[in-house]
Specification:
heterodimer, A: 162 residues, alpha+beta, DNA polymerase, domain 1, five-stranded mixed sheet, 5 strands, 33% helix, B: Uridine Diphospho-n-acetylenolpyruvylglucosamine Reductase, domain 3
Chain lengths: 162, 292
């Protein structure tokens, strides 16, 4: 097999079976954006620091810029596009809007997927836990206060919807 | 940036992986959790011609007790170790260090073996293995060799692994009675690599004096630093603030850490002394309280 040969990648994204072909060196985030057209997941630092590319991989938050697309073959992925259902914002998205949890919006997809994973593990978090929980995503606009407020506010709504 | 081109293999067994590594030697790189290697590929600091992905190999993902050792498979995710009740009970030092490794997103993918084989000089896991006198289980074409940490960790990002060998697991001695542990570190932000980290284990005798003490530090040299001479003075002494202060002073004195963007050599030396005292104090409290 030559290096530039494309290999098939089959995976489930937001509940739908998807497939594509790509070079083994293609990053998962680029596969999602370029091959599947899901541009909601953002590419920030490309080395696993900023957290903008965070997705859910088999039920756990992971960074899609430091994972190869071929490694996600057979995986179940949820991206930011999978949060809103039938035109209704997800409670977490609603809370971010309500509490000014974003300004430019670049980190927001990663922040939301991180907060989603965090609230699964911490259904009733303290502010300190939230700050630690979101520390893997960098936001340059908000100073984080609005994000912390939004995550705190979303916790009861998420518990109800469980 | 994006990774340079490579040929990608997903061997289904350790034997298949070893055959690939034997064939391609220095041109091949092993992919475990990818949390350090993929950034290096993205930066093109690593340009392997062949990438051997271990994620398809079964039976390298386990946590179990074997003859007085806690045995962990190389491909066990860090998050699984963090959540393991067996790890909390048998190896509380490892349990305490786990949440301090990167972030949840990193630990969901990152593996125990990957971190040890990467051998970052500021990583937590090498210091844990060094402090506890663990063993690294290495497989090669001629079978298995079991290595002590002082032989395995050779230098900055360098281990004694040959290009045709694989780290397949790590063994840590299970907690002894009347022993307390602590792992403390200081980093600029939560989840960053430690500026300095200290792993401590302290065993008391029936009368409450120190029977044994072990310390290993991360972030202060190219490999984990085991402070054996400094801890030896504790043996036979009752734990006290003065005794721990003295060990901290000795540890700090012997170190010659590099200065970098994140901290000066002097600051790291100072931190090493303070964190040593804190780690020993906490370990002694836990040894007395029986909580490990």
């Amino acid at each position: 097999m030559k290096m530039s040969d494309k290999v098939p990648v089959r995976l489930t994204v937001n509940g739908t079976s998807r497939e594509g072909r790509c070079e083994p060196r293609k990053l998962l985030v680029d596969f999602l954006r370029e091959d599947l057209g899901l541009t909601g997941t953002h590419v920030g630092c490309e080395h696993g620091i900023c957290g903008a590319c965070t997705i859910m991989l088999n039920g756990e938050a992971a960074r899609s810029c430091i994972m190869l697309a071929v490694q996600a073959d057979g995986a179940e992925i949820v991206t930011i596009e999978g949060l809103a259902q039938a035109g209704q914002l997800h409670p977490l998205q609603e809370a971010f809007r309500e509490h000014h949890g974003l300004q430019c919006g670049f980190c927001t997809p990663g922040m939301l997927m991180t907060a989603l994973d965090f609230l699964h593990v911490h259904p009733d978090p303290t502010e300190a836990e939230i700050r630690e929980g979101i520390s893997a995503v960098l936001c340059r606009c908000t100073g984080y206060q609005g994000i912390v407020n939004a995550v705190k506010a979303a916790a009861p709504a998420l518990n109800r919807s469980r | 940036m994006k990774p340079p081109p490579f040929e990608y293999f997903t061997p289904a067994s350790v034997e298949d992986a070893l055959a690939l590594l034997g064939e391609h030697r220095e041109q091949a790189k092993v992919l475990a959790g990818g949390q350090s290697l993929v950034p290096l590929l993205n930066f093109r600091l690593a340009r392997p011609r062949y990438l051997v992905d271990l994620n398809g190999i079964p039976h390298l993902d386990y946590i179990r007790e074997e003859d007085g050792w806690l045995a962990i498979g190389a491909m066990t995710r860090q998050r699984a170790v963090e959540r393991s009740a067996l790890v909390r009970d048998r190896c509380p030092l490892l349990a305490e260090a786990m949440p301090q490794i990167g972030h949840v997103q990193i630990r969901n993918r990152g593996t125990i073996g990957g971190s040890l084989a990467h051998a970052d000089p500021a990583a937590e896991l090498p210091a844990i293995v060094a402090a506890l006198g663990g063993r690294l289980v290495v497989r090669g074409p001629d079978g298995e060799r079991v290595m002590a940490p002082e032989r395995f960790f050779v230098g900055y990002l360098t281990t004694a692994l040959e290009p045709f060998e694989l780290l397949v697991g790590v063994r840590l001695p299970v907690r002894r009675s009347r022993t307390g542990h602590a792992f403390v570190e200081v980093s600029r932000r939560h989840g960053d690599f430690a500026l300095v980290g200290v792993a401590a284990a302290l065993t008391l005798d029936a009368a409450g004096a120190c029977a044994d003490a072990a310390l290993a530090l991360t972030g202060v040299g190219p490999t984990p630093v085991v402070a054996a001479a400094a801890t030896r003075v504790l043996v036979g002494q009752r734990p006290s603030a003065e005794a721990f202060q003295e060990v901290g002073r000795r540890v700090s004195e012997t170190l010659e850490p590099d200065s970098d963007l994140h901290a000066s050599s002097e600051y790291r030396k100072h931190l090493a002394g303070v964190l040593t005292r804190r780690a020993l104090t906490r370990a002694a409290e836990r040894a007395r309280g029986g909580e490990g």
